[in-house]
Amino acid sequence: MRNLSDTVARLTAMRGAALEAIDTSNAGPLSELRHFGSNPGMLKAFTYVPKSLGQHAPLVVVLHGCTQSAAGYDVGAGWSEMADLHGFALLFPEQQRQNNPNLCFNWFAPEDSRRGSGEVLSIRQMIAAVVDTHDIDPSRIFVTGLSAGGAMTSVMLATYPDVFAGGAVIAGLPYGCATSIPQAFDRMRGHGMPREASLSTMVRDATDHTGPWPTLSVWHGTGDATVNPVNATSIVGQWRAFHGANVDPDRTEAVDGYPRRVWCDQEGQEVIEEYSITGMGHGTPLDTSGDDGCGRAGPYMLEAGISSTRHVCRFWGLLRDETVARVARVDPTVADRQVVPLQRVSKGDGGFSAADDPQQRKTSPADQTSPANQTSGVSRVIEDALRAAGLMR
């Protein structure tokens, strides 16, 4: 296990990288939601409501990654483009630098990762305000996020399973998988993950909810050097039992050349899907080319020839009469694709994608993962050192 000085050095490097993040002052097409409750997590909120929004429309909650803003992630992933085309509302919670210098959602802080408290309660209050204002269908609320936003997506699904019809975790980690900061680094690197039964128990213990449970879409690059892809497998394992799904997937398909594994419930409905984006690094997979192009490549927004945004909308049933999945049934042992070359992006977007830059990998957003609140012994020493470095409240 890494020593304290190594852990603090890595987190300090993360803080330096975060200070070079993109400008967050321009909200673009988004509108700020200023009044939504007590806001104990001290977050900002932005919305996008297309002109085509009808009565009882769906709502998608979108959680950015570290060093990102709500507006920046929207441009990259293309969520407002999809909302315009298919008539659903968007809510973008946004982290503030006074809460976290890296602009990461504080899903690792106990007060921000349990029901009725901190940032998760702030997000829940935002959702309630948007539902009331725009006549949202409360049975069609979804949540998605990248990296630390993906980790917070896991937190939201576990702490408010009664609110969400589905979630999509992109390059994230399972809920409750770490109990200390050094342990969290090991989980990111695929070491010492709790067993599936323990992970499922964490979700069950988070609320008194008994079902129905949100469906789940999981996306991860097989070349992710920041969050090991074993985390995707653990996320699937954490939720599979709640849907009564088999251990093995019910089928494996190739979608846009990448393997998609599918688990169904006892009625044969798709309830969990997992996309493995072969060779891709840490980020959101995009397909920005052609008439159906969506989003814009940039740091942590990676051109891969497949749009996670579009396919997640398909999985949630949000597309208007559009056939998205160009599916070819294949043998699961060969449902694979050539390694995706690391993608360059225009200099205006930062020069290289995050996957190209070894320093970006080392100072990645998801390096902040969920520690339990420990107040004695070595944990207190760690927390004091992190506060001294300005990395923990």
Topology:
Layout: H1 4-18, E1 31-32, E2 44-48, E3 57-63, H2 70-77, H3 79-86, E4 89-94, H4 118-134, E5 136-146, H5 148-159, E6 166-170, H6 181-188, H7 196-206, E7 215-221, H8 230-240, E8 251-255, E9 258-264, E10 270-277, E11 284-286, E12 301-303, H9 308-315, E13 327-329, H10 358-362, H11 377-388
Parallel strand pairs: 3-4, 3-5, 5-6, 6-7, 7-10, 11-12
Antiparallel strand pairs: 1-2, 2-4, 8-9, 8-13, 9-10
Structural key phrases:
single chain; 393 residues; alpha/beta; Rossmann fold; eleven-stranded mixed sheet; 13 strands
Short synopsis of the structure:
The chain has 393 residues and is an alpha/beta fold. The chain has a single domain (4-388), classed as Alpha/Beta hydrolase fold, catalytic domain (Rossmann fold, 3-Layer(aba) Sandwich), CATH 3.40.50.1820. The chain has helices at 4-18, 70-77, 79-86, 118-134, 148-159, 181-188, 196-206, 230-240, 308-315, 358-362, 377-388; strands at 31-32, 44-48, 57-63, 89-94, 136-146, 166-170, 215-221, 251-255, 258-264, 270-277, 284-286, 301-303, 327-329.
